[in-house]
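All the exercises in this workshop are built on plain-text protein records. An example says more than a description, so a record of this kind follows:
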Amino acid sequence: MTLERTARIIIGVAIAVSVVHYVDNYVNYSDYPVPDSGPVPSATVVGVSWFLFTAAAVAGLWFLHQGRLRAAAIAFAVYSGSGLVGFGHYTAPGATSMVWWRQAHIVADILCGIAVLALAVACARAAREERVPAEGV
């Protein structure tokens, strides 16, 4: 399977999962526990951030299609934050008491963030391999 095809699958799944997570987080904002310290983004910030993160994912796919592996790696690394930020939910007291389906989409979004970060690393490694001249050349 090509890197581009793999990226399309990972990003497609990540976007689908993030829609569920971010819509629930935005619509049911008051149902989420709040941490005792640290940043507490408003519902508006949560909603707007989905669009910004998703724009980075789409840009990453476009860069990858254009063969711009380094730019794709950076865009995917930015997009990985969309899922990885889910770890923040578990800094709040009572987070593990949320209903099972909310836990499921938060954990799924975190796992997608890890997969997208691995995709970013794969793109960065591919970009590096492109720059290394073949032996004897």
